[in-house]
């Protein structure tokens, strides 16, 4: 069933439909965040990249509330995919994991480190977010550790939401009829630029730390796995 929906999403351009729905969210008032979260969940399950939806969240709700709504939506969507991967689509998920050898190493590491490995993979951009949601369902990680570790998406979420909020501010500035003093506009751009650079720099720094820690954890897990047969012969 899940496979059928994913194929349908690619054939019928669900990504374009979701983009239209996100624009519609803006007219829903207080019900907008709920509709946004539901749409984001659907996109997560259908392997539609969430980066554009995250950017749009910044446009619609600003940095603070946009980050909160995106985080809630992404965690719920990731949890749904995890449950589906564990109980409904194990064979298909395993086939997809065979195409990405890194996932096998992750399975060894997650058996020992639990939520820490989930956290590090969420911080690292080398693992596709949507596939990782399903993939963790067939590993040995518990649902509690999975949810806890999934909060590692926070730095990347804030960065994309912030970028989206800048686009939203630019759009609003263009619609104003009142002229803006050149000095004011320059300072606006400077403050936005400094904020964006700081956000991206922190995200890159955290990502590098995560990649290094993840590589070490995976290497240790693989070494331990290889040593087990030798120790059993003694």
TrEMBL record:
It comes from the Bacteria. Keywords: Cell membrane, Membrane, Transmembrane, Transmembrane helix. The keyword Cell membrane applies. GO terms for cellular component: plasma membrane. The chain crosses the membrane at residues 21-48, 68-89, 146-166, 186-206. Its main location: membrane. InterPro entries: TMEM64, VTT_dom. It is found in: Cell membrane. It is a multi-pass membrane protein. Residues 48-165 form the VTT domain. Belongs to the TVP38/TMEM64 family. This is TVP38/TMEM64 family membrane protein. It comes from Nostoc sphaeroides CCNUC1.
